[in-house]
From TrEMBL:
Organism: Natrinema salsiterrestre
Record GO cellular component, one term: methylcrotonoyl-CoA carboxylase complex
Protein name stated in the entry: Acyl-CoA carboxylase subunit beta
Domain of life: Archaea
Domain CoA carboxyltransferase N-terminal: 72-342
């Protein structure tokens, strides 16, 4: 505290005023005379007589035996505070700490150490360590010494950090405190973190290990305007503004399960994580179904069946590695471009592309063999690989530039588009566009799958969403007709009608309403059936097939300027790199409207 008194006061008066004020306010007081710039007296509350600035005596300019303020150590009050902080950092009861190691999990603060230590990573500060302090600390309102009542930080940590050179907001549950459950003070911290992320425009990491809302303390946080329901409102406001990345370390049940599905990217850890709308016990009460948590909502369920998990990590270290890779493709927010890196040559030579792609439209091959010859070595990062595997969705780099790849996979069900594959692609396109990541479509599909089961599974609904996402994306888009582009597949895969910057054909390419066999059967079935001679009928079928293939051949499409160019496959990488570079700053706009109604 600084005070200024009249220049006419003498040193004894200044010292007396300083001592009285220091004793009253409980802090060091500097006393200035008149308009002097240096204090005449520096008086600490614990001193019997003040010491002057610069280590002089209590009166200006006179030597004395008073102690300098710079020489003072922490007071008992500060030592007590440090002890309280150390106690909070210990987390919940020790018996629950022991259970973590049995489950192969880290204590939450050790987890934060794993994430935010080392080169280019640091935990800067934490907010809300003392949340719910009065409810459990012996010096607070609760004098019950039962260890189970410990609520350090109310079981939820929020902090600001640098991760791999990027500033991020962090939330992490402490599973040793009431199984990471959420209550009023922790909810308040969570909401503040989200609201601050909207202001800073920095990514948000959710390190989830929560059993859900604290049922016995639900008053004050469940249905309130600023309660737990606000989580998902804030998730929605953050969606498309900043990347939200969630890693699941344990069971996330009921309300806690919504954060991972609201996040842009969700990683589950094998052997320890799960998410479900209700616990197995609740499921049994409601439906009578007897099921384990793993079967109900384990990683395999959400990777293969629901599509709610983007990746599965083998352990805690692997989870961090996956996020460290993922974030290299993402900007901090929607106002920025994704970060570039030094270009690398592909892992395999582009010279092999044409040999990989069969001329026969129904012969399978692995599209990743083509991608490995286009993208920078080591940059291919696939998401949701086991969900809708007929379409590949991945981030990669071409000449150092991040791109989002949407590619048909002929190695799975001929690359036909099923409902789950369409859903996966639509969400990936939508997210990539939100964060300004250019899109590359690699088309080799017979189109959307037909049949009664896919109709029940919503092929029209999911196909609509994929086409809508492709239509609405305003990032630079390049489409390559690798081989077949039949039916509405060419629409969903960024065909000429969907405002791509380029549509490039390889010499194996074909664009048609349907493939030759189906077309001949649809158009000429009756005429062919009237030919009695089998050899004559076979000759006619062959001629019709050859005529049809000539009509749909990529050369005809280039001649009619349906596509922009046919390129030698060995030059495809350099062609794409040049086009993405040229169209980097292209401006696109959507019609003036509030938003579309499809997604």
């Amino acid at each position: 505290m600084r005070v200024r008194i009249t220049a006419g006061a003498d040193d004894d008066e200044a010292a007396a005023i300083g001592a009285a004020l220091a004793d009253h306010v409980g802090e060091t007081v500097e006393v200035y005379l008149g308009d002097q710039t240096d204090p005449a007296v520096v008086q600490d509350v614990e001193q019997e007589s003040g010491s002057s600035a610069g280590g002089e005596s209590s009166t200006g300019g006179n030597e004395g035996d008073g102690e300098s303020a710079a020489d003072l150590g922490p007071t008992e009050r500060e030592r007590r505070l440090r002890d309280e902080i150390a106690d909070i950092l210990e987390g919940g009861p020790e018996k629950y700490r022991a259970q973590l190691s049995e489950d192969g999990k880290l204590f939450v603060r050790d987890r934060l150490e794993l994430w935010f230590s080392g080169e280019d990573s640091e935990l800067h500060f934490e907010d809300g360590k003392f949340a719910a302090f009065d409810d459990w600390h012996p010096d607070g309102a609760n004098t019950d010494e039962d260890d189970d009542d410990r609520l350090p930080a109310d079981g939820l940590i929020t902090a600001a950090a640098t991760f791999e050179g990027r500033d991020v907001h962090v939330m992490a549950n402490d599973y040793t405190v009431k199984r990471g459950s959420m209550a009023a003070k922790g909810v308040e911290k969570f909401l503040r973190m989200q609201q601050r992320a909207l202001k800073t425009g920095n990514p948000v990491f959710y390190l989830m290990d929560s059993s859900g809302g604290r049922i016995d303390q639900q008053t004050g946080f469940f249905a309130n305007r600023e309660g737990i329901g606000k989580y998902y409102y804030n998730h929605s406001m953050l969606s498309g503004r900043v990347p939200q990345i969630c890693v699941l370390y344990g069971p996330s049940i009921a309300g806690a399960a919504y954060t991972p599905v609201f996040a842009d990217f969700t990683i589950m850890v094998e052997g320890m994580s799960a998410m479900a709308i209700a616990s197995p016990r609740m499921v049994q009460m409601v439906t009578g179904e007897d099921i384990s948590l793993e079967e109900l909502g384990g990683p395999d369920v959400h990777m293969r069946e629901s599509g709610s998990a983007d990746l599965i990590a083998s352990d805690e270290e692997h989870a961090r590695e996956l996020v460290a890779q993922l974030i290299t493709y993402l900007p901090d927010n929607a106002d920025e471009d994704p970060p570039k890196r030094e270009p690398k040559s592909p892992a395999k030579s582009p010279d092999g592309i044409d040999a990989i792609v069969p001329q026969e439209p129904n012969k399978g091959y692995d599209m990743t063999d083509v991608i490995d010859r286009i993208v920078d070595a080591g940059s291919y990062f696939e998401l949701r690989p086991d969900y809708g595997p007929e379409i590949l969705t991945a981030y990669a780099r071409i000449d150092g530039r991040p791109v989002g790849i949407v590619a048909n996979q002929p190695a799975h069900r001929a690359g036909a588009i099923f409902p789950d594959a369409a859903e996966k692609a639509a969400e990936f396109i939508w997210k990539s566009d939100a964060f300004n990541i250019p899109l590359l479509y690699l088309c080799d599909t017979p189109g959307f799958m037909a049949g009664s089961q896919v109709e029940k599974d919503g092929i029209l609904e999911q196909g609509k969403k994929m086409i809508y996402a492709t239509s609405s994306a305003t990032v630079p888009k390049q489409t390559v007709v690798v081989r077949k582009a039949y039916g509405a597949g060419i629409y969903a895969m960024g065909g000429p009608a969907y405002d791509p910057e380029s549509v490039i054909g390889l010499p194996s390419g074909e664009i048609a309403i349907m493939g030759p066999e189906a077309a001949i059967n649809a158009v000429y079935a009756r005429k062919l059936s009237e030919i009695d001679d089998p050899e004559e009928r076979e000759r006619m079928e062959r001629e019709l097939r050859e005529e049809y293939r000539e009509d749909i051949d990529v050369h005809r499409m280039a001649s009619e300027v349906v596509i922009d160019e046919i390129v030698p496959p060995s030059t495809l990488r350099e062609e794409l790199a040049a086009r993405f570079d040229f169209y980097e700053d292209i401006e696109k706009s959507l019609p003036d409207k509030k938003h579309g109604t499809i997604l």
